[in-house]
Amino acid sequence: MSKRVLTRWILVFGYCVYCSMSAVAADPKVRGKVVDQDGNPVSHAYIEARPIINDLGKGTVVGNGPNPWIAADDSGQFEILLPAGRYRIQGKAEVDGFPDPTFWLNVDPKARFPVISVANKDVTDVEVVLGRQGGILHGLVQDADTPAPISNARLRLQDARNSNAFVEIFTNQAGQFEYTVPSKPILISAEAKGYKRVTVQNGGEVILAPGEHREIDIDLHHE
């Protein structure tokens, strides 16, 4: 964070005294917009600045972001303050089917998350392009016999083409879950303590249409 020195004459007990004081200058502003693949502004979007801590040829090592996800306005415009450094600006709009790119399952090569350098001046016209629109998966995990909701049941959502790309989510106290999934075939399974693991659709691929909201209720049987 940069500083500047302010000097002024002040009146102290009838005498003019020349003094100096330091003031902290504000961090530069970063302004931009979030758009979809067709260049349309995305409402309900959020952006995050992830600091780049190392460059490795064509790749980068990205550290933990010091900033939380920041909401853009209804027209996809955003403005944030960042200290000097290099950042990758990434975005999401989960309520509209654009998943969190932090997770490997959701990585989309069509997304364009720009890398910017922040120094002493504002950075403007930053364009964040989200990947393909996915859908929102939600539902209930319950006991197959009662049927009582099962809290803390674990669901595994896995890329059908890459077993290493997956996320695991857990049901809440009411046995409910919700997750924004990418636009790709996924495999879904669920399990809980004292219950047998089950696969959704007998292990078949699940694909949500762009913007689709799909409810899937899962019954678990005791071991």
Brief synopsis:
This protein has two domains: 29-129, Immunoglobulin-like, CATH 2.60.40.1120; 135-220, Carboxypeptidase-like, regulatory domain (Immunoglobulin-like, Sandwich). It contains no helices and 17 strands.
What does this structure look like?
The protein has 223 residues and is mainly β. The protein folds into 2 domains: 29-129, Carboxypeptidase-like, regulatory domain (Immunoglobulin-like), CATH 2.60.40.1120; 135-220, Sandwich (Immunoglobulin-like), CATH 2.60.40. Helices cover 0% and strands 51% of the residues. It contains no helices and 17 strands. The protein has strands at 3-12, 15-24, 29-35, 46-56, 59-62, 70-71, 77-81, 85-92, 115-118, 123-129, 135-143, 154-159, 162-170, 176-181, 186-191, 198-199, 213-220. The strands form 5 sheets. Strands 4, 5, 6, 8 and 9 form a 5-stranded antiparallel beta sheet that branches. Strands 13-12-15-16 form a 4-stranded antiparallel beta sheet, with no helix packed on it. It has a 3-stranded mixed beta sheet with strand order 7-3-10, with no helix packed on it. A hairpin with a 2-residue loop joins β4 (46-56) and β5.
Poorly predicted regions:
1-23, 57-63
Q: H/E series, N to C?
A: EEEEEEEEEEEEEEEEE
The fold-level CATH name of the largest domain is Immunoglobulin-like
- CATH homologous superfamily label of the largest domain: Carboxypeptidase-like, regulatory domain
Instruction: Give a short account of the largest sheet.
Output: 5 strands, antiparallel
Number of helices: 0
Query: Rg to the nearest angstrom?
Result: 24 Å
Work out the number of β strands. Answer: 17
Structural class: mainly beta
CATH architecture of the largest domain: Sandwich
What is the overall silhouette?
A: elongated
CATH top level assignment of the largest domain? Mainly Beta
Average pLDDT confidence is 87
